[in-house]
Design goal:
It is a single chain. This protein is α+β, with helices and mostly antiparallel strands and 461 residues long. The protein is 62% helix and 16% strand. The strands form 2 sheets. The chain has a 4-stranded antiparallel sheet with strand order 1-2-4-5. Strands 3-6 form a two-stranded antiparallel ribbon. Strand 4 and strand 5 form a beta hairpin. Helix 2 crosses helix 5 and helix 9 runs antiparallel to helix 10. The longest helix is centred in the first third of the chain and has 68 residues. It is elongated, with a radius of gyration of 40 Å. The C terminus is likely disordered.
């Protein structure tokens, strides 16, 4: 109950739709990934395989029935020696004779066994519950990880697209500055060094644009690796996204929810529980087992001197392990060491989850300030560029000053765009740490996307 209340408290925090809008393609991308992502598919099959531990453990307490039949043909030769007296006055004569016969035998047998009690089987059945829960938690963790991976890959494409767009604008601006510097040089208003500075800035922006285009291509391939093919992306985010603080505000509240609901922590806890029960299973091999065995069989023979037979038996058997060459003791020590290993890993997971939750929380808080500061930096650099351009016209600024402010403006723009993606990823990461990341969180972000522009029509000839 406490876990469900905590999740409900976080269900509607952060992003809320600021206007009604048709969904863009972030959700479509995620739904493609649900069908095509190999990591999630492997996690699903691993879960399906792991949950079979329950029926396998239960089978030890159910009747075991088997049947068998056989048929064979045998050849038997019998050699006999007799003493034959032909003439009493003569010694007896030894006579040897051989007789051969064949027998076709057909037999069948059915066997039924039932475990009445086994400490090992009972403890293995109890362990299977933890194994099934572990399999489900592992799959749920993979589902949440997919949401975050899709968002990261999707924003990677948008960020690379932003870089291409701003680098293209920077290249074009540097090209205009270069043309302007050449004209000023031709009329004697600028030195050749101004032309050279402008040329260097232009060449550098061309090289940077080439690298940005390659980064965009790689980002699209990374997203396609998750979705199983090329994935369309929106043009970008709206100009100013809502910057909501974490709700609840206290990081301690987030830590409490993470301790209860974080799937990776649940996985570590269940691994430790499975390992503890493995010790009980190994130790139970010291205890006796009790069962019932019964069988019935018939055999039919074709040779008249070999009579047909029927046989049946039923009984209770008790197996008391006395000494197994030290195997059981070794298995107990091995299971105990594995248990201690899993407990150490559990403690490490607790510390790691706490650190990651705090880091995600701080990422959201600092992300809000970073987005605001970077937006102001863009505005300030835009003003500085305009001032430098005016100063260049009246002779109070140099070409180098204009190029520097131009470069600073585009750096600020790229930083601002990236800070918005970092903020959104921090939001999703914090909700993942709380075990509360769902598809609806992507839907909220989807509403903040601008629709991708339609392809430009080819010019008329």
């Amino acid at each position: 109950m406490r876990r469900s209340i905590a999740r409900a408290a976080l269900a509607s925090c952060f992003l809320a739709p600021i206007f009604a809008a048709d969904a863009n393609d972030l959700l479509d991308t995620y739904r493609k990934a649900l069908e095509q992502d190999t990591t999630l598919s492997a996690a699903k099959f691993a879960r399906d395989a792991a949950i079979e531990a329950k029926p396998q453990a239960l089978s030890a307490f159910l009747p075991q029935f088997s049947a068998g039949a056989s048929g064979n043909r045998s050849r038997t030769s019998i050699t006999q020696q007799d003493v034959l007296v032909i003439d009493p006055s003569q010694p007896p004569v030894a006579v040897e004779g051989t007789s051969t016969f064949f027998n076709d035998a057909l037999s069948y047998q059915v066997t039924l066994s039932q475990t009445i009690w086994s400490f090992e089987a009972w403890r293995r059945l109890k362990q299977s519950d933890s194994q099934v829960a572990l399999a489900e938690a592992t799959f749920r963790s993979a589902q949440q990880a997919l949401i975050l991976r899709v968002a990261q890959a999707y924003f990677g494409v948008l960020s690379a697209s932003d870089a291409v767009r701003t680098n293209t604008a920077e290249r074009d601006a540097n090209e205009r500055q270069l043309l302007q510097a050449k004209k000023r040089f031709e009329v004697g208003l600028a030195a050749i060094t101004d032309v050279q500075e402008a040329q260097a800035a232009y060449d550098g922006s061309v090289a940077t644009l080439i690298g940005a285009e390659r980064t965009l291509s790689n980002a699209r391939r990374a997203l396609g690796e998750i979705t199983g093919g090329y994935a369309e992306t929106a043009e970008g985010l709206i100009e100013e996204i809502p910057l909501a603080s974490p709700n609840p505000v206290s990081v301690d509240d987030w830590l409490k929810v993470a301790r209860d609901s974080n799937f990776d922590l649940q996985i570590a806890e269940l691994n430790a529980e499975v390992a503890k029960k493995s010790v009980d299973i190994a130790y139970a091999r010291h205890y006796p087992t009790l069962g019932i065995d019964g069988s019935y069989g018939e055999q039919y023979n074709s040779f008249e001197r070999s009579p047909d037979s029927k046989r049946g038996s039923i009984g209770i058997n008790v197996n008391v392990p006395i000494f197994s060459g030290g195997l059981t003791q070794s298995q107990v020590r091995q299971a105990a060491a594995t248990r201690d290993q899993s407990l150490s890993q559990l403690e490490g997971s607790k510390r790691s989850i706490e650190r990651q939750t705090r880091d995600a929380y701080q990422g959201v808080m600092s992300g809000i300030a970073s987005v605001k500061a970077n937006l102001q930096a863009v505005k300030s650099n835009q003003t500085a560029l305009e001032s430098s351009q005016v100063g260049l016209q009246v002779g109070t600024r140099t070409e180098v000053d204009v190029l520097n402010t131009l470069r600073n403006l585009y750096i600020a723009q790229r930083t601002y765009y990236q800070s918005r993606y970092d903020y959104l990823i921090s939001v999703l990461t914090l909700k993942q740490q709380a075990g509360n990341l769902t598809e609806s969180d992507l839907a909220d972000i989807d509403r903040l996307l601008l629709a991708a522009p339609a392809p430009a029509a080819a010019p008329a000839r």
